[in-house]
Specification:
The chain has 237 residues and is mostly beta strands. It contains one helix and 17 strands.
């Protein structure tokens, strides 16, 4: 699984580029967005490619640059999913997900060392890092998260977000066919700020769109360094 759940965890080494001014209209139909699936996602060092079943669920993802690394998803009839990660013909690790009545992952069992992790959600269906996360949801968007990571001497992390309210999110986990990790924010992120246990972080997001109004490029500007990290997207239709 190549997707990262926490937005604040995306603080990678940035690439300096020129910000885009292409702000054409994005999609406004939430039903179309829900069915939109990403075909390729290009980040700094590699391109990820996704395959789906007839229900729009992800069944395989791999690095286009190195096809020897890939993951498969098998959907079982008892509300469970088995994920297997490979390097060439070698199985690197595997895990089994158990879903709740809403179809969200609540237990993750490593099939290698038999450890079990629990996943939590708020009443709106948004993923929580810990059971004690405090989430603020407005108009279908995650506006604020407060949580206390392990091994931080009980120091909390506070994250806040603003959004482009006229632009729907076509690059969430659901658009990679990972519909079992809770809800994505409805709109595209405009700004992100975080401070606390992991230090301070501030980012501004701008986007370009394809002819169907879907995000074709996302530019993440680190406000501290001025560097811009770029991600590009193509879709299955």
């Amino acid at each position: 699984m190549f997707a990262v759940l926490g937005l604040a965890s995306c603080k990678k080494d940035e690439v300096t580029t020129t910000p885009s001014t292409n702000q054409t209209s994005s999609l406004t139909d939430t039903l179309v967005v829900a069915k939109t699936r990403i075909k390729t996602k290009f980040d700094k060092d590699h391109t990820s490619y996704y395959l789906y079943d007839a229900n729009g669920r992800q069944i395989k993802s791999y690095y286009v640059d190195d096809n020897s690394y890939y993951s498969t998803m098998e959907y079982l009839s008892n509300n469970q999913i088995v994920e297997k990660n490979y390097h060439g013909d070698t199985l690197r690790d595997s895990r089994k997900y158990t879903l709740n009545e809403k179809g969200y992952v609540v237990y993750t069992e490593s099939l290698d060392n038999k450890t079990i992790d629990t996943t939590y959600y708020d009443v709106n269906g948004f993923h929580k890092f810990t059971n004690n996360d405090q989430l603020t949801i407005e108009n279908g968007n995650l506006m604020k998260r407060i949580y206390t990571p392990e091994n931080t001497n009980n120091e909390s992390v506070i994250e806040t977000y603003t959004y482009y309210m006229d632009k729907l999110n076509t690059i969430g986990l659901k658009n990679e066919g990972e519909i079992y990790w809770g809800k994505d924010s409805k709109n595209l992120i405009k700004t992100e700020k975080a401070y606390g246990a992991y230090g301070d972080y501030s980012a501004t997001y701008t986007y370009e769109f394809d002819t169907k109004g879907r995000v074709s490029k996302k530019m993440t500007k680190n406000e501290s360094t001025g560097n811009i990290y770029t991600s590009s997207y193509t879709y299955t239709d």
